[in-house]
Amino acid sequence: MNYFNGIVKLANGVEMPQLGLGVYKMTDSTETIRAISHALEVGYRAIDTAAIYENERETGEAIRQSGIPREQLFITSKVWNTDQGYDETLKAFEASLQRLGLDYLDLYLTHWPVGETFVDTYRAIERLYEEKLIRATGVSNHHIHHLEKVFNVANVKPMVNQIELHPWLTQEPLRNFCNEQGIVITSWSPLARGRLMDEPVLEQIGLKYGKTPAQVIIRWHLQHGFVVIPKSVTPSRISSNISVKDFELTQEDMMKIDALNRNERTGTNPEKFDEA
Ligand code: NDP
Predict the structure, then answer these.
(1) Which of 47, 60, 157, 203 has the fewest Cβ atoms nearer than 10 Å?
(2) What mean pLDDT is reported for the chain?
(3) What is the pLDDT of residues 25-43, one digit of tens each?
(4) Where exactly are the structural domains of the chain?
(5) Residue among 32, 169, 231 whose CB has most ligand 1 atoms within 8 A, to mutate
């Protein structure tokens, strides 16, 4: 089989699949269950959801229908902004777990660094970790100064930072900082929400390997060592996005893709979240 099944090791030794399915904007219940079920069938073992996506129930349903043993899956969810704070996060986690119908999560993240409460949110995530309700701790959309505030109170550093990252937004300073701190990067909107598909450089590189621009981008994330969570509800895309085991981009092609950076976001800048 040509499906990619590599893993990355988190700071505590837990193994996380390097390629997973993102499920943001999967709103139709039947379509969501069908998409996740298809992904699990073709080899995905990690699902990235969040309370705000309003599809934790469907995610749990697809997991149960798959019959795949729970310990072979890696399930991530996130605490939404209106639920941040210590007690609120503990409560929000319990609600997520119930909707998913699971008794633990592999990874739980602070979705955005809201106001000053994100530090308390992370303390609650640490408590969930101590209580073995999650296998790893993490955050999302945290810049260096947010992470430094978290470090001041943390017993255990976040093991993952999930950030917007793709060839138009390569985030080198933040990546380097996370690397030095032993924090694994997960790339969200890894395909720039599908907008990178017509980028000529990616088309040209794809032709050389007989691969689509999406496959080239996914390989670029994997070869950089990022966890990557492309979203699709389209079965053929779900399959092709994970069929990236049989080729390797040369250093030169990696650098050509790196050079596409223009610091362009498709989503909100965490610095300006309150203004969004
Ligand atoms: P992606 O970069 O994954 O792009 C998804 C879009 O690309 C969809 O429109 C999809 O269409 C299309 N697409 C997927 N595969 C292909 C392909 N092979 N060829 C052409 N088009 C394709 O965007 P997302 O914003 O969804 O990011 C991925 C995941 O990251 C989310 O689902 C979520 O889990 C996470 N995320 C986290 C955030 C955070 O704040 N922590 C913020 C945003 C996302 P279609 O579905 O119609 O096939």
Answers:
(1) 203
(2) 97
(3) 999 999 999 999 999 999 9
(4) 14-191+224-233
(5) 231
Task: Return the CATH fold of 14-191+224-233.
Answer: TIM Barrel (3.20.20)
The owner of tokens 């269950």 is 33
**Amino acid at the residue 164:** E
Which residues are identified as catalytic? 53
Rg of the chain, C-alpha, whole Å? 18
Q: Is residue 175 within 8 Å of residue 153, measured between CB atoms?
A: no
Query: Residue for token digits 């969200």?
Result: 188
Nearest to 167 by CA among 118, 208, 115, 219: 219
Check: pTM over 0.85? Answer yes or no: yes
Binned at pLDDT 50, 70 and 90, residue 275 comes out as very low
Select from 32, 189, 196 the residue to mutate for testing ligand 1; criterion: most ligand atoms less than 8 Å from CB. 189
